[in-house]
């Protein structure tokens, strides 16, 4: 179920006439929920829908089959966005959307290794072709690097205790399963029984490191800045304070340089009604901006025109 679907449509397509044609890019299409919303709201447009996860693309292909050639599905990471737009020859898109972080497709399948609630292999790769898994990080990084990861990428106040417990435990047996790691983290924090599972922040930090989510986001933002049409719009949904801060600073810098008109001075959040129907929406933050007409496009990292 997509989060903030009405807000996304309003941000990207709210002012387009029904007959307007052109392309949107959904850089993280998942099961295709946001892509469907855009195609339904703007009957004249097409969507280049991208995802790095082949399982997600298979599901999206089924869910979006009714739209025929109005949707084009391709496998790509955010850092490959510029290359993919150029390769697909769609010109400058009218809008670009990023819905960051993990989705139910990952959390609901223990074999993907994202969940601390169900035992599975300690993997966490959104793109299965990535060479490094969460097990590689947990079993090979030194204690100080693990502590920094858990603190800076997960906001985990008990980062040093958790890192120390992991290093001690892996001397006996290397970590291979999510259940074993979640148990060690719970013991180290002593926070079992609270509203938030004690392994939440640790698993978040590992997932971000495995998938290089910070670097991927910066690559995607640069590509959007370079490729968006004049008057085109960018919308980014984040669930992590560091991601939201990166998007905010990127748009603020572009605003000072007169490349962006920021449409959301504060991020939009989900209504109580939406949160009741979709718990993932409770921490969603949406920021949007419009590419100013006649202003130079960012070239660094954005690919070729």
3D architecture notes:
With 305 residues, the chain is of the alpha/beta class. It folds into 2 domains: 5-105 and 213-291, Rossmann fold; 131-210, Orthogonal Bundle (DNA polymerase, domain 1). Helix content is 44%, strand content 12%. It contains 13 helices and 7 strands. The chain has a 7-stranded mixed sheet with strand order 3-2-1-4-5-7-6, with helices on both faces. It is globular. The chain starts with a helix and ends in a 14-residue tail after the last strand.
Describe what is shown at a glance.
This protein has 305 residues and is an alpha/beta fold. 44% of the residues lie in helices and 12% in strands. Helix 7 (143-154) crosses helix 10 (200-210) and helix 8 (159-172) packs across helix 9 (178-189).
Write the layout of secondary structure elements.
Layout: H1 5-13, E1 22-26, H2 33-41, E2 45-51, H3 54-63, E3 71-75, H4 81-88, E4 95-99, H5 104-107, H6 134-140, H7 143-154, H8 159-172, H9 178-189, H10 200-210, H11 213-227, E5 233-238, H12 241-256, E6 260-262, H13 272-277, E7 285-291
Parallel strand pairs: 1-2, 1-4, 2-3, 4-5
Antiparallel strand pairs: 5-7, 6-7
Helix pairs in contact: 1-2, 7-8, 7-10, 8-9, 11-12
